[in-house]
Write a structure and sequence with these properties.
CATH class of the largest domain: Alpha Beta
Mean pLDDT: 97
Bound molecules: nicotinamide-adenine-dinucleotide
Distance between the termini: 63 Å
Shape: globular
CATH architecture of the largest domain: 3-Layer(aba) Sandwich
CATH topology of the largest domain: Aldehyde Dehydrogenase, Chain A, domain 1
Structural class: alpha/beta
Oligomer: single chain
Largest sheet: 7 strands, mixed
């Protein structure tokens, strides 16, 4: 397993020789160690990306697209190894890790196809001949979180490389090895030296060096709203182009016409992916009063049946929380909700996974939740389902929109008029109707308000890495 960083096509260690250890969150056993890069190495990565940009941007679109398709095929060939590594450093069950490899690959296939749809435009202007064309912004930076180590990287690398940008990626400290394995595949697929560079280490010095460098023209960040704000401030000096994919606090609305079995199946699939450590997983369950009790009973029964443990065991549904701070936050949210009057229906505490640490939280259902509770206002990022009843559509939509976040929302209903209204009125960037998995590579994905801005997926994802140029000609 490779554990170096990639700068200008060379596999390198930190100048200081310092490394960061990567631990399996399910067992606390070491998985590997990666370089802790500093300011000088970061500058060298910018030199490399900047130097490689003109040739990569000038490469014919067909050639860049072919490289991306090749990269995707190589990921498919290495699916088992990539998934095993991801489970080891992130903890998610192996089946979810395998699905993530497929999901990550799809961004390369989609970007390779979408690049052909971007054509010059010629708006009609009397007395002038106008051509509007697009060109890549230049050196792009990707900073990614630990919860989807490959998919979050793919969402950024695929569009950037497709349009002709060069890139520096900085994965999360908890999950850098999946990113290194990916970079190795990119090199094998023929991505030229300097086009993709990878730095691991403490985030602040690396990010500050990147933000200060005027050659960096784009930053795409996925992570917490707090760090997103910090990067936005830091990007102001060079007026950096930004895409910020930040936290979410998705509501899931179950209307009175919902089929109970389907509603529970959809809720379970959306909620417990990656143990609830997913930016778009439902964090607030709003259920029509007429079916509230039946839905809660069925959700609690299905939740209690989930198996926690080391992700390589086939029977496991839920992996560990990523670290101690994460499980302590989940516990604090549950304790706070009960203190504020919520009823604990199932779960509520830690579990020890077989052969593992006790960094596993029981799937938990709470009822009678209110806006005073932390779990109703903040991202819990764990396997907790806070439930509240509503009486009519107006109340459901008002409660759903009562959050500073606006990434995803879900509704379970078959009423066409209501579906139309929800699409117009729910203030989130993604609305899933009877759909627990609305994030696919061909469609735009991203948030509004404190969930950030910018879109990933399809041609919308490519546009984030392009600048628009107007050439206005008047014949002399
Ligand atoms: P985080 O913000 O702590 O870390 C994300 C990345 O930012 C990591 O690479 C980290 O090293 C880096 N980082 C941390 N401090 C930094 C600093 N001072 N300067 C520069 N970079 C810094 O978030 P996390 O805990 O890794 O991820 C969970 C968060 O990500 C949740 O809020 C979740 O909702 C969000 N998320 C959002 C999406 C989306 O598409 N909107 C997707 C996945 C996760």
């Amino acid at each position: 397993m490779r554990q170096d960083n990639l700068i200008d096509g060379a596999w390198v260690r930190a100048d200081s020789g310092r490394t960061l250890e990567v631990l399996d969150p399910a067992t606390d056993l070491p998985v590997g160690s990666v370089p802790a890069m500093g300011v000088a190495e970061t500058r060298r990565a910018v030199d490399a990306a900047s130097g490689a940009f003109p040739a990569w941007a000038a490469r014919p679109v067909e050639a860049r697209a072919a490289t991306l398709v090749d990269l995707s095929a190589r990921m498919a060939a290495k699916r088992a190894g990539l998934a095993a590594l991801m489970t080891a450093e992130q903890g998610k069950p192996l089946a979810e890790a395998q699905a993530e490899v497929d999901y990550a690959r799809s961004f390369f296939d989609v970007a390779a196809a979408a690049i052909h749809t971007l054509e010059d435009e010629h708006p009609e202007v009397p007395g002038k001949s106008v051509r509007v064309h697009r060109r890549p912004v230049g050196v792009a930076v990707a900073i990614t979180p630990w919860n989807f180590p490959l998919a979050m990287l793919a969402k950024k690398v695929a569009p950037a490389l497709a349009v002709g940008c060069t890139q520096i990626v900085k994965p999360a400290e908890q999950t850098p090895l999946s990113a290194i394995a990916f970079a190795e595949i990119a090199i094998e697929a023929g991505v030229p030296a300097g086009v993709l560079n990878l730095l691991t280490g403490d985030p602040a010095p690396i990010a500050e060096t990147l933000l200060e460098d005027p050659r960096v023209r784009k930053l795409s960040f996925t992570g917490s709203t707090e760090v997103g704000r910090l990067l936005m401030r830091g990007g102001a000096t060079n007026l950096l182009r930004l895409s910020l994919e930040l936290g979410g606090h998705a509501p899931l609305l179950v209307f009175e016409d919902a089929d109970l079995d389907s509603a529970v199946r959809i809720a379970m699939a959306a909620k417990y992916r990656n143990g609830g450590q997913t930016c778009i997983c439902p964090n607030r369950f709003l259920v029509h009063a007429s079916i509230h009790d039946a839905f809660v009973a069925a959700l609690a029964e299905a939740s209690a049946a989930l198996v926690s443990g080391v992700g390589t065991r086939p029977e496991v549904d839920l992996g560990p929380m990523i670290d101690d701070a994460a499980i302590e936050k989940v516990e604090a949210h549950v304790t706070d909700a009960i203190r504020c009057g919520a009823t604990l229906v199932t779960g509520g505490g830690r579990r020890r996974g077989a052969g593992a640490t006790n960094r596993f939280h029981e799937p938990t259902v709470l009822t009678g939740c209110t806006a005073e509770m932390r779990c109703w206002r903040e991202e819990t990022f764990g396997p907790v389902c806070p439930v509240r009843a509503f009486r009519d559509d107006d109340e459901a939509i008002a409660l759903a929109n009562d959050s500073e976040y606006g990434l995803a929302s879900y509704a379970i209903t078959s009423d066409p008029g209501r579906i139309e209204r929800l699409g117009l009125e729910l203030r989130t960037g993604v609305v899933g109707i009877n759909d627990p998995g609305p994030a696919v590579a061909a469609v735009p994905f991203g948030g509004v308000r404190h969930s950030g801005f910018g879109r990933e997926g399809g041609r919308w994802g490519l546009e984030e890495y392009l600048e628009t140029v107007t050439v206005s000609r008047v014949d002399a």
